[in-house]
């Protein structure tokens, strides 16, 4: 586990508790320090401004990211998000492993702004049979949404064909670089990974996802 060095910047009062806005870096010699919410137990990335859940729904392809237990050894990783009747989000993750399709379904619950983690783009995802996340706050934070090579700013339409999304977990431990296109250009992927690095992701643990020759997408 990477050593974290944390420098206190300011204290912010939020409904439901006191949060510290801190500068966080998992590797100070390589990564820039970034602002992160700290609730006394875990660090949380700052979410994207103007996040719109409705436009975020639908299919995303993971084009790069930190290897997670579900996706270890997988290619053709994807995620489908749809709205449930009770307002939660149905999460259907899929990938291809050894020529077989693998799926896992769970639920994402949006965390209200009153909790102090952000105005939108902060969710808590849970899959059946898995233990609850160790951190009390969100484990799925949409840090940035844009298009193309990353030159378009945050707030770009997440439903557009050229959209990308940078998603991080609590403690900056898991990065998902998502794209509406299954095979965007390498130039775009590299530009977005660099942006993810500037937002606090440790790129040394990130791998590209093979999205070629997919049988099920």
Automatic annotation (TrEMBL):
Keywords: Signal. Residues 1-20 form the signal peptide. Belongs to the calycin superfamily. Lipocalin family. InterPro entries: Calycin (IPR012674), Lipocalin_ApoD (IPR022271), Lipocln_cytosolic_FA-bd_dom (IPR000566). GO terms for cellular component: cytoplasm. The keyword Phosphoprotein does not apply. Residues 51-208 form the Lipocalin/cytosolic fatty-acid binding domain. The keyword Cytoplasm does not apply. This is Lipocalin/cytosolic fatty-acid binding domain-containing protein. One of its GO terms (biological process) is response to reactive oxygen species.
